[in-house]
Amino acid sequence: MKKNLLTVGLLAIVASSANSQTVLMHVDAGAKMYVSKGTLVYNGGGLQTKGSGINIPSIENHGNFMIVGNTTSDVFRNLNDGGAEVADGISGTFLNKLNEAGAYASVNPDRNPDTPGVVPIPVYTYGQLFIDGIAQGNIKGVVNQEFRQPAHGSYQQMGFPFHDKTVSSLSGASALGKTFNNTRYSGNEILYWNNTNVVSANLPNGLNTKLGVDLSPFSYFIVGGAGLDVSNQTRTLVGKPVATTSAQLSLQLSGAGANVNFGTNGFAVNQYNEYYNTYLQDSFDASAGVWQGSFGKNIYQFGNPYMTNLDLSQIATAEANGDGNNLSNIYGVRLEVQGVQYSSSGGGGSTSFKILTFASGVPTGDVAYAMVRPMGTFVVKLKSNLTTPETLNFATLRRFNYYRRLAGTAYSVTAGKNTLSGTVKQLGVIGLDANGNEVDRTYYVVSPNTVSGHTANPTVQVTASNSFGTYEENAISGGYDPNYFSYWLYINEANEVNFKGKNIKLVNYNPNIVSFKFEIRENAQEIASGAHLLSSGEGFYYKKGTDTSVSPAIQGSVIASQAGTNSGIEYDLYYGMPNNVVLGTNDIKKPSRTLVVYNSEIDGYFVRFDPSWKKATVEVFDLSGKLVLSKKEVDASKDYVLDLAKDLKIGYLVTIISDKGEKVTSKIVK
After folding, report:
1. Taking Cα atoms as reference points, which of 313, 537, 539 lies closest to residue 426?
2. 92: CB partners within 8 A, 6+ apart
3. Is the pLDDT score of 15 beyond 60?
4. Which pLDDT tens digit goes with each residue over 486-531?
């Protein structure tokens, strides 16, 4: 891609004294500087503007702007018409603009394996500002930061890349377009996530709290969504950028939830008298045991503190000349939260998100989402609470590019491409509707180090919170493991050596999904379109339910499928060609006639039992793995009504076990 240095409209730039080095670039009264999309502007010193009111100058940034200080006296500031420094800055002097505002919900494409070395064309771009080497006290100028985000639901998850900005200034038509208060549960409050105490906490000084002063610039904010529209209308927030001084370069990850007792099944309460199980979600540890071990602990929620993208794709590996991050204890990252819901009777939570996990440092899962946009958020889950904390350096994650930096590429804010290496293999199955639009997706990952079957120490596995996914496999023979129907998986893992040629079960409960598309990656990079084989000489395969022959999964291919049903449409996924595709005893099972049925008259669900059953145990889990209903010794001679909240539009997994041990599972999608 052609890299312009600078595109200028009406511009007046003056260099100040070389001896003082306070300011290298000066934009004078009335001047207009336009930085076009794709342009990189580098300023190796301080920057200032002069003028206000009708004489206000402006730098309109649609590209990439770097300000790198060289001395302790370098500044970023705004002067008034008389040349005096304005302590709180002047709005409109530096503007980070959106270029394709309507594409805010689109993910920028990953690299195209069919055109190696060609930079992908991003579909959503925006002006980004990078400031280094200037002390926070010398950053007096302000930036008008435009943004849009997908609507998250009852509460918007946001990062605020500003220093010394009061929360009250987020109210009003010129900011977030609504008025905030400090009333918890109102849908109009702003909370922040306290990593240590595992709670959405009230602001320390109410609406007078100052961003980046009273709270860390890395803070994760939960913003009341009542009347909030950050999707259909471009919003602009104004504030001072966050510096990258030594005190703010990095953050130690230690102690999240270490001293918190969640109680049996999460029924202990936090300082606001809220049950932990009403809001705490941990899809990483759910398969190892809900409310057991490290469930809910070692979770760190962050907001992007900078006006550039953050690239999280290489944070789990030590690289020569890399970004300096090596979270060897990381489990995964949660991004792009959706479906945030809150009810006074049932608490709150999210119905879906994107996930990255790491196999031997290689990202797996939703790899294309590894870039966190300005004002975006992300969640890091560690495997354990180490005695020696691990450090995450945010400053070296900054990246103008809209696609991730590949392993082995020397770090820079504009770092480029690299070649493929490694042995982590991933099959993505994307569920499509009748118009070919994505509805849902799930992943199957294999490597020499990933684990087959249920384990208390999974490596990349993540439980599902949707109506499309895979079930835990029997580690010896493949297929269902009937001992672990209480959860199912968004990212499933198996060992490529001991599970080669064995099947995992993909099940579609979503009636809108009528076809699948395959996305195949090796070491996080997509293989070429139309390709099947990986570097090992093996590939992924699939077959439908009772079919006796398998087909190769081919990159980019789309296969028709029967629409999902409440009882589920089954497929088998394989890594490596199975030796015998004739149905074995693992696949042959007389289906029980026990069903979960919807009754429109009561707007609810009930269990209708197989006539051969006498007694049963009924358990209902939400899709994070939390047990919400349990009833033993249920009389199977009559229907059993499931007493579930009607005001929460979430999904449930129902497990029904007969007195003879026969087990039936069913998914409820609300």
Report:
1. 539
2. 56, 58, 144
3. no
4. 888 999 999 998 999 999 999 999 999 999 999 999 999 898 888 8
180/170 Cα distance (integer angstroms): 8
Strand partners, 4: none
Beta bridge partners of 333: 356, 380
- Residue 118's pLDDT is 63
**pLDDT above 70 (res 421):** no
The CA angle 202-160-353, to the nearest 5 degrees, is 80
Place of tokens 């379109």: 529
What's residue 343's pLDDT? 81
One-letter amino acid of 220: Y
Identify the H or E element spanning 189: none
Question: What pairs with residue 309 in β-bridges?
Answer: 399
| Residue 199: both structure tokens together | 């709670």
* List of residues 6+ apart from 202 with CB closer than 8 A: 182, 184, 189, 191
Q: Which residue has the tokens 């031997």?
A: 360
**355 membership: H or E segment, kind and range:** strand 347-359
Helix (H) or strand (E) holding 657, with range, is strand 651-658
Cα–Cα dist 112/371, whole Å: 17
- Token pair in block for residue 155: 């509460």
Structure-token match 């002067």, residue found: 79
How distant, in Å, are the alpha carbons of 316, 361, 453, 463, 470 from that of 492?
A: 19, 17, 9, 8, 7
Q: What is the mean pLDDT of residues 631-639?
A: 89
Q: Which residues of 356-395 are buried (b: 16+ CB within 10 A; e: fewer)?
A: bbbbbbbbbbbbbbbbbbbbbbbbbbbbebeeeebebebb
Give the residue from 342, 324, 345 showing the smallest Cα distance to 393: 324
Q: What is the spatial order of strands in the sheet that 347-359 belongs to?
A: 299-303, 377-382, 330-343, 347-359, 362-365
| Residue 125 pLDDT greater than 60, yes or no | yes
Q: Decide the pairing of beta strands 330-343 and 347-359.
A: antiparallel
Does 4 score more than 70 pLDDT? no
Bridge partners (DSSP) of residue 357 are: 332, 364
Q: What is the pLDDT of residue 420?
A: 34
Other CB atoms within 10 A of residue 411 CB: 18
Return phi, psi of residue 277, to 5°: -75, 0
Q: List the end-to-end C-alpha distance of the chain, in Å, as a whole number.
A: 46
Q: Decide: 324 and 311 in contact? Cβ < 8 Å.
A: no
Residue type, 198: V
Angle at 487 between CA 222 and CA 482, to 5 degrees: 175
- Distance in angstroms (rounded) separating the CA atoms of residues 98 and 35: 12
Q: What is the DSSP string of 227-242?
A: T--SSSS-EEEEEBPP
Task: Say yes or no to pLDDT of 247 above 70.
Answer: no
Mean pLDDT calculated for residue range 26-34: 94
46 token code pair:
């301080």
Side chain identity at residue 243, one-letter code: A
Residues 6+ positions from 118 with CB-CB distance below 8 Å: 112
Check: CB of residue 131 under 8 Å from CB of residue 241: yes
Residues in CB range of 580: below 8 A, 6 or more apart: none
Provide the 3-class DSSP secondary structure of residue 276.
Answer: helix
Lookup: tokens for 61 = 């940034």
Proportion of the chain in helix, strand, coil states, percent, rounded to 5: 5, 35, 60
Residues 6+ apart with CB under 8 A from 287: 454, 458, 461, 463, 472, 484, 487, 489, 625
The per-residue pLDDT for 251 is 86
Distance CA 339, CA 141 (A): 37
| d(C-alpha 648, C-alpha 670), whole Å | 8
